[in-house]
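Postdoc handover notes: sequence design on the structure in folder B. Input tokens:
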């Protein structure tokens, strides 16, 4: 169905159409036993979908929600009608293909909140509006080629889906252009060159210039042609794996790449593969390399397959670090976190400085061959990748071959050094003892009062950690949020930051940097993903802001903005608010000693259940291994002044609490339970993880942990300095 707009577009559509049609499916009610090939007793079409890996179909969430508004989406069974086998050229009806129907089960939907809140009939579903279906029987089918680019190119595309133009369901395709993005990049706009018919929702959108699927058809305009598609990059927002497991996204992308790698290497038939067609696509206009300096389609498929045979990276930051080393600059922080080795390749298209893509990708592959993996690779897998890099470089220039060889040798030496250091720590004790925080990157959440209004500005960032002190990578920011609206506004930015920082062995630390009067913000109770509170999923600590505070905003209690008097009016820059340089040494000494322990607690704002305000002299005279404890509301006196005084006295570890709603409840159980916890912990370095464990016990209905409800840990780690910058407020 070409429109003859350009010869290049028409030829690309002609080449790609059979491959895309073979992988596109019709989604409908489950067959109910009528799974005979060729059966038409499957009911009306709900929408379309397409195979992205063996046994996995991608579609829209609203497609699998068709006809079942009150039914839970995840776990729902649906029917999938597809073409069995890859077509010979001549279309899906050519010899060698069979139409069949199989049952699939919805594995998950994005976003997860669609399970709780769905739009009304004819309303747009929340982005990204995706569903992943697992086929419940082993069947032979084709798969599409997914883009590895983080952002789509605004070129000509084709979209496919199920239509009934001639009275019978069939998969058809039409051409159009991408006209821009929406939803902060989650959606892409389709031009109005042709109309999207009912039933095409969930079908693939294919970049005709590059021969790769970039989107999923979502909706058409009510006023005419065109509509929206969801970027396939949103697959990276699939739920993260439990510690020690491989996530669903990585599993599917590994299966995707191995499928195409196996098809490329197979000589069992003469059917064209996606790799074959990539080599036949018309040359791209305005190609700075003129085709040279890029990997060939066969080389790209092979590289993706070899990367898929390796264990996944230890974290997203590990991928970004390798990309940065190759590009010579930090990759764009805005796209979704790269979660697989393949995603790293997608950040190396058109590298800066005129460097060829092929050279950049070979350097990256060299570094991956000597990287640290989350588990030992299959014997010989890393050597096979390096052998391929070396052989591929032979068609390029000699200096690159020499450079790659030296790069590989340095990488091997560095990996051996790390292994020896690790073995030494195992024999003589780890650098950070068991139960401590992970040493890598953390997520930083900053919240500032918006002047004197009951509104708050926020920023979510990745803090690089001790390896790169003070290095900050912004993820997202916003202004003028209410207290009640903060959890929803921050759900997506926090989820993205966690994807960037979590490793296969540990969930990243969440650091909440707020003024002391905001220490009552119940961040540990927020739910971001998986239906489990943040404080149960990962360590959560409180930090004083890195920059010099502006005038304090309205007090914030456990249930929202309070009416308390606030803290004392301390002029900015005074020694009382910001300790002089000679106090820095005192704070460092306190930090080092409290980390080693043994710990002792000291009530800072309470004496026998009655409020008290600690003096600077009294605080300075306490042993360095003391943990000051606060049991009263942080936005009111004397606790607010005590929190400032504790910081000024150089205490980097302190405990605070949101008191229970009933003011008549005694604080004695809290102090008693905390004293036992500190004594059992012995040293401060394990407190963030132990508090996470306590929250998990309370979440699991353990009455012996209920005393810890509302407890917060102030954690001023000098190895994790915060940026000393002022917040940027929105318009007043």
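Designed sequence:
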């Amino acid at each position: 169905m070409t429109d003859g707009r350009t010869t290049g577009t028409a030829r690309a559509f002609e080449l790609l159409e059979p491959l895309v049609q073979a992988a596109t499916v019709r989604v409908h009610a489950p067959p109910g036993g009528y799974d005979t090939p060729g059966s038409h007793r499957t009911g009306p079409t709900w929408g379309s979908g397409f195979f992205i890996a063996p046994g996995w179909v991608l579609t829209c969430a609203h497609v699998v929600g068709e006809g079942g508004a009150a039914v839970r989406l995840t776990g729902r069974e649906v029917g999938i009608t597809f073409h069995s086998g890859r077509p010979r050229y001549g279309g899906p009806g050519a010899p060698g293909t069979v139409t069949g129907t199989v049952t699939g089960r919805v594995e998950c939907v994005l976003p997860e909140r669609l399970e709780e809140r769905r739009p009304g009939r004819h309303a747009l579903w929340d982005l990204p509006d995706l569903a992943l279906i697992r086929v419940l029987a082993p069947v032979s089918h084709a798969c599409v080629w997914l883009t590895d680019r983080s952002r789509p190119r605004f070129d000509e595309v084709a979209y496919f889906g199920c239509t009934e133009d001639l009275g019978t369901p069939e998969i058809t395709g039409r051409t159009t252009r991408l006209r821009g993005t929406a939803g902060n990049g989650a959606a892409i706009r389709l031009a109005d060159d042709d109309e999207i018919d009912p039933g095409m929702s969930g079908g693939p959108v294919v970049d005709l210039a590059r021969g790769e699927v970039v989107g999923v058809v979502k909706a058409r305009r009510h006023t005419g042609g065109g509509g929206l598609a969801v970027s396939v990059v949103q697959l990276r927002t699939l739920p993260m794996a439990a510690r020690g497991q491989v996530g669903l996204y990585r599993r599917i992308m590994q299966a995707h790449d191995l499928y195409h790698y196996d098809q490329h290497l197979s000589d069992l038939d003469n059917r064209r593969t996606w790799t074959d067609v990539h080599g036949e696509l018309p040359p791209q206009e305005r190609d700075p390399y003129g085709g040279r300096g890029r990997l060939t389609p066969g080389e790209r498929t092979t590289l993706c397959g070899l990367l898929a045979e390796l264990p996944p990276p230890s974290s997203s930051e590990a991928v970004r670090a390798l990309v940065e080393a190759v590009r010579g600059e930090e990759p764009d922080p805005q796209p979704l976190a790269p979660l697989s080795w393949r995603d790293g390749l997608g950040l190396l298209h058109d590298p800066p400085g005129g460097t060829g893509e092929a050279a950049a990708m070979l350097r990256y592959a060299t570094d991956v061959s000597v990287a640290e993996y989350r588990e030992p690779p299959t014997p010989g897998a890393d050597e096979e990748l390096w052998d391929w890099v070396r052989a591929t470089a032979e068609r390029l220039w000699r200096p690159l071959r020499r450079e790659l060889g030296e790069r590989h040798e340095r990488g091997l030496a560095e990996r051996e050094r790390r292994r020896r250091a690790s073995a030494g720590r195992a024999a003589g004790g780890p650098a950070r003892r068991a139960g401590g925080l992970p040493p890598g990157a953390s997520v930083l959440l900053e919240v500032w009062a918006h002047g004197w209004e009951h509104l708050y500005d926020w920023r979510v960032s990745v803090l690089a950690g001790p390896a790169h002190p003070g290095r900050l990578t912004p993820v997202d920011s916003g202004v003028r949020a209410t207290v009640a609206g903060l959890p929803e506004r921050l759900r997506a930015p926090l989820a993205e930051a966690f994807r960037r920082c979590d490793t296969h062995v540990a969930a990243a630390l969440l650091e909440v940097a707020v003024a002391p009067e905001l220490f009552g913000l119940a961040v540990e109770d927020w739910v971001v993903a998986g239906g489990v509170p943040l404080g149960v999923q990962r360590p959560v600590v409180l930090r004083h802001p890195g920059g010099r505070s502006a005038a304090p905003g309205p007090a914030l209690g456990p249930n929202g903005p309070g009416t308390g008097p606030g803290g004392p009016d301390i002029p900015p820059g005074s020694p009382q608010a910001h300790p002089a340089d000679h106090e820095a040494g005192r704070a460092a000494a306190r930090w080092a000693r409290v980390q080693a322990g043994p710990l002792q607690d000291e009530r800072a704002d309470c004496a026998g259940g009655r409020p008290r305000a600690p003096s600077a002299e009294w605080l300075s005279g306490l042993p360095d291994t003391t943990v000051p404890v606060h049991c009263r509301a942080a936005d009111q006196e004397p606790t607010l002044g005590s929190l400032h005084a504790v910081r000024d006295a150089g205490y980097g570890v302190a405990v605070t609490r949101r008191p229970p709603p009933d003011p008549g409840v005694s604080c004695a159980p809290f102090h008693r339970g905390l004293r036992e916890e500190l004594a059992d912990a012995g040293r401060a370095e394990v407190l963030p993880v132990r508090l996470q464990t306590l929250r998990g016990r309370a979440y699991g209905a353990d009455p012996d942990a209920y005393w810890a409800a509302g407890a917060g840990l102030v954690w001023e780690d000098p190895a994790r300095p915060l940026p000393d910058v002022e917040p940027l407020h929105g318009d007043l």
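Context for whoever picks this up: The longest helix spans residues 398-428. Don't rerun without checking with the PI first.
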